[in-house]
Amino acid sequence: MLLDASVTDSFVTLATHIIRDLGLGGVALLTAMSGVIGIPGTEPTMLFAGFDVFQGNLTLLGIIIFGVIGDMAGASIAYAIGYFGRIELLERHGNKLHVSPQRLQVAQRWFDRYGSPVVFVSRLLPLIRAVFPYAAGVAEMPFLRFFSFAALGSVVWITGLALLGRAVGSNWEHWRRNLEYVDYVALVLLVAVIVYLVVRRARNARAQRAADVLSD
Q1: Does position 154 have pLDDT exceeding 50, yes or no?
Q2: Is residue 210 assigned to a domain?
Q3: Residue 158 in contact with residue 45, Cβ under 8 Å?
């Protein structure tokens, strides 16, 4: 699951060069690519875009809007691949899209257990957020429902990264040297625990409401 540090550094370099050359268009392009093939990743893309905001080269609203547009474009393409290509295509060629059968199975189990809201939650998980749109397509989730949940999560995720990138400001080079996916393991574990508790509470509340209805 974890990418080698040297590989990650090359992704960061790619993101910084494209954003410097293309500006907001580069932000949209990179977030779209990240949604389809998982690289270079929304993290280095939006953190460096936020650094450009700190330098005065881009605007905060601009990078958020174009980041979300690109992120949702990538997620929509991934959904379409899953919907029309089906599970057989992803099992044969998923590795080319950085979508392993194991991650896809995990995503499908989450869908079976928690339903549509898992799309929102998945957009906040760094290591696996690109897998769930494929799984949503395979599961034939209605596109408008998928898009709504995914967009909500995307706005939160992209905005958070943009604000963080602007906040680190002149410390960008220090963050860049430490921007390895291994750094996100603790964050993923923390988010997973929070998500589990929230979902369990929601399910218990639904079960209680159902029991109340039956008892009436």
Answers
A1: yes
A2: no
A3: no
The answer to whether position 203 is within a domain reads no
Measured between alpha carbons, how far is 42 from 126 in angstroms, rounded to an integer? 8
- Number of independent structural domains in the chain: 1
CB contact set of 13 (below 8 Å; sequence gap of 6+):
none
Q: Between 122 and 107, where is the model more confident?
A: 122
Cα–Cα nearest to 157, from 68, 92, 73: 68
More confident residue, 62 or 15: 62
| Residue 182 reports pLDDT greater than 50 | no
Quote the domain boundaries for residue 88: 5-185
The answer to whether residue 145 sits within a structural domain is yes
Q: Are 39 and 33 in contact (CB under 8 A)?
A: yes
Interatomic CA distance for residues 78 and 96, integer angstroms: 13
Given a contact cutoff of 8 angstroms between Cβ atoms, the answer to whether 163 and 50 are in contact is: yes
Long-range CB contacts (within 8 A, 24+) of 193-197 = 195/121
Q: Give a yes or no: residue 102 inside a domain.
A: yes
Average pLDDT over residues 3-10: 49
Residue 162 CA to residue 173 CA, distance in Å, equals 16
Tell me, letter by letter, the H, E, C secondary structure of 54-80: HHCCCCHHHHHHHHHHHHHHHHHHHHH
**Angle at which helices 5-22 and 24-37 pack, to 10 degrees?**
140
